[in-house]
Amino acid sequence: LATGPRQNNSIFYEIRTYDIKPSKMKEFVEMVNKYFHLRTAHSELVGFWSAELGAMNKVVHVWKYDNFAHRTAVRHALANDKDWQGQFISPALPLIEKQHNEVAYLVPWCQLGKPPKEGGVYEWVTFQMKPGGPALWGEAFRAAINAHINTGYTKLIGVFHTEYGLLNTVHVIWWNESPDHRAAGRHSAHEDARVVAAVRDSVRFLESQQNMLLIPLQCSPLK
Length: 223
Prior knowledge:
By secondary structure, the chain is an alpha+beta fold. The protein has helices at 25-35, 37-40, 68-79, 82-92, 134-151, 179-190, 193-202; strands at 12-20, 44-53, 58-65, 96-106, 121-129, 155-164, 169-176, 206-216. β2 (44-53) and β3 (58-65) form a beta hairpin.
């Protein structure tokens, strides 16, 4: 995962996670939907979601950059965009309790996907793997992901491996038609001997896992 093809591709993704003040979540989402066109005029937004289950008052958004120089230029332009600063940043900052960002690459064996239709839900799964990197756990992790894909109940959107932030972290985004469809599919997967074997091999390298059910915001390209 961490060598070869990935190093030859300069494209990376910035994952930004904001904790919003509980009493201000509705106001924040309304502001995003109203003014975020000012932000997307500067660079490509992959997706923007709010957490429904697994976390509360949290939003996650993912941005695509060609390289680090591209990000630097975008951040400079944003700092000098009076409309963006005045209409969104200034009123939005008091609504935010905490901000966190990571830089991650798509793993070489994964292309960024799209859901087959709008109206579903997204599952964001964060795996904290043992130190040692993909040279240690990469193949076992890939086998576990492929085993779930092969069941057919869920759609893989992307697999991201961190470069900046907490290392040995992998974020996996899945799409499902509904929470109930996801629950039924997970139940079937747990009874599939191929999935069980692949997961059992992968969890040898797992330190922790967190799942969130996400709902796309109106401004999100991934809906």
